[in-house]
Design brief:
By secondary structure, the protein is mainly alpha-helical. 71% of the residues lie in helices and 0% in strands. It starts with a helix and ends in a 9-residue tail after the last helix.
Length: 51
């Protein structure tokens, strides 16, 4: 998977988690943990503009 594909996968997954957060399925703490796991998985550093 190249960097462009990794970024797309990350953004799609985070958008789903944001919807779950808005619907009350996830707590803010759970969302933060999931977002961090995804960023690590797809190689996005903490200061990335895409996060």
């Amino acid at each position: 998977m190249n960097k462009h594909q990794a970024l797309i996968h990350y953004r799609v997954a985070v958008s789903v988690f944001r919807k779950w957060l808005a619907a009350g399925i996830l707590s803010e703490e759970e969302f933060t943990k999931l977002e961090t796991l995804l960023a690590d998985k797809y190689g996005l550093p903490k200061g990335s503009i895409y996060r």
